[in-house]
Amino acid sequence: MPRPLLILAPVLLALLLGLGAAIQPAAAYQHKDWGKTGAPDRKLREGCHRYNYHYVIDPPSDDWAAETFLIDPTGEKLASGAFDVDADPAKGKSSWTICDASTKPGRFTIKMRVTWQTSLTEIHKGWVKPSHFRLYRKR
Asked: What is d(CA 67, CA 82) in angstroms, rounded to the nearest whole number?
């Protein structure tokens, strides 16, 4: 093989692999019914307190894991949670600790990413439709 092709081959291979990773099925980014999250609207209390939320995880496989992310009204990520089929129920409650000194009242978003495995080599990820709740300033 000519020397320029030997040098160019790894670069082309890296580009193709990168494109392959970037071009995932549209389903990986769509909001599907692989689960849901939710939390009630509440008052943002003085100090640091736990605020409950609930989740349901329902992927197309019995081998799953999930991550939850709490986003504040400004778009900043405040907290996260993790769930695994071996340690957690597919339906349950969890909580975030939120401090009024470090956040503002408003509309919060819960995002959840579900990962499931259909074989040793087939791992899938997808986002669940985000849910929202409000924390109001105590008057």
From this structure: 4
Return the sign of the alpha-carbon dihedral for residues 98, 104, 105, 106. Answer: negative
Q: Could you report how far apart the first and last alpha carbons of the chain are, in Å?
A: 76
Residues 6+ apart with CB under 8 A from 13: none
CA distances from 127 to 2, 28, 90 (A): 46, 7, 16
Q: What is the pLDDT of residues 31-82, one digit of tens each?
A: 678 899 999 999 999 999 999 999 999 998 999 999 999 999 999 999 999 9
3-state secondary structure of 17: helix
Distance between CA atoms of 101 and 77, rounded to whole angstroms? Answer: 15
Amino acid symbol at 6: L
Q: What are phi and psi of 58, to 5 degrees?
A: -140, 65
Tell me the backbone φ, ψ of residue 45, rounded to 5 degrees. -85, 155
* pTM of the predicted protein model: 0.76
